């Protein structure tokens, strides 16, 4: 356990490649990175029936428990562990169990609205926005939601048109202006290498560092050298 020396926020639209970027950084830098997916901070909706939870707008800022996220981020930044909630997309709710998360040298906060909240932005040392065209993002989302999140095609399309797209335009895309760095098309090799160089430079002396040749970008099961 260590007190983090550097916190990064990675925002961007659904399917932009945020998780892929965060995972690549974490895999390269290893145990020195703690990842905080904002999805875990969706409000607890246990008081609603499944059909009601299905109808919630999950792309509006009010869907998230910002107070808890701020509090837990501050706790990690002060070098103490947290009990992080876990989220199940198939049931549209938190699971019953939390996971103990220890702070490490680098914190990576990742999610559609990672740069939305002013207080959270101020806790971050580097703000990244992953920018990918909407058509690419919706195609990726359809594949992911059907395969991994138990959704049907019609539902994914309806949700996209009714809430995901308008909320993206209203709340997510404007946070691009808050970013220090914009990564085009997600995991682009040069941008990721620069990000990893920056992260490695922030590691305390004595931490393991990987040469660029040992770095890999992976998209699910496919690996791109
Ligand atoms: N640069 C890329 N090229 C090709 N596929 C990508 C790229 N970035 C991400 N993907 C794929 O797109 C899907 C969504 O990526 P993900 O990182 O989960 O996006 P987000 O976290 O922004 O929703 C995943 O299946 C991932 O493997
Ligand atoms: N029950 C839920 C909760 C969230 N979503 C969608 O997830 C998207 C954010 O996750 P990404 O990995 O795509 O960034 C967001 O656009 C929500 O619409 C959901 O479908 N169901």
From TrEMBL:
SUPFAM superfamilies: P-loop containing nucleoside triphosphate hydrolases (SSF52540)
Main location: cytoplasm
Catalysis: reaction(s): cytidine + ATP = CMP + ADP + H(+); uridine + ATP = UMP + ADP + H(+)
Binding residue positions for ATP: 12-19
GO cellular component, one term: cytoplasm
Pfam families: PRK
Keywords attached to this entry: ATP-binding, Cytoplasm, Kinase, Nucleotide-binding, Transferase
NCBIfam families in alphabetical order: PRK05480.1, udk
Protein name: Uridine kinase
Origin species: Natrinema zhouii
């Amino acid at each position: 356990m260590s007190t983090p020396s550097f916190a990064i926020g990675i925002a961007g639209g659904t399917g932009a490649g945020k998780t892929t970027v965060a995972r690549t950084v974490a895999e390269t830098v290893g145990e020195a990175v703690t990842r905080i997916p904002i999805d875990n901070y969706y409000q607890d909706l246990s008081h609603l029936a499944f059909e009601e939870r299905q109808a919630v707008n999950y792309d509006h800022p009010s869907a998230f428990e910002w107070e808890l996220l701020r509090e837990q981020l501050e706790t990690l930044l002060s070098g103490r562990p947290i009990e992080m909630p876990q989220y199940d997309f198939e049931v549209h709710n938190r699971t019953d169990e939390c996971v103990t998360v220890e702070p490490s040298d680098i914190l990576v906060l990742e999610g559609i609205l990672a740069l939305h909240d002013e207080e959270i932005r101020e806790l971050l040392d580097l703000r990244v926005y992953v920018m990918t065209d909407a058509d690419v993002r919706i195609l990726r989302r359809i594949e992911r939601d059907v395969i991994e999140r138990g959704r049907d095609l019609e539902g994914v399309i309806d949700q996209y048109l009714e809430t995901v797209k308008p909320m993206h335009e209203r709340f997510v895309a404007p946070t691009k202006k808050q970013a220090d760095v914009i990564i085009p098309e997600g995991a682009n090799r040069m941008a990721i290498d620069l990000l990893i160089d920056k992260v490695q430079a922030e590691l305390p002396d004595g931490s393991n560092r990987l040469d660029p040749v040992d770095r890999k970008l992976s998209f699910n099961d496919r690996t791109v050298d």
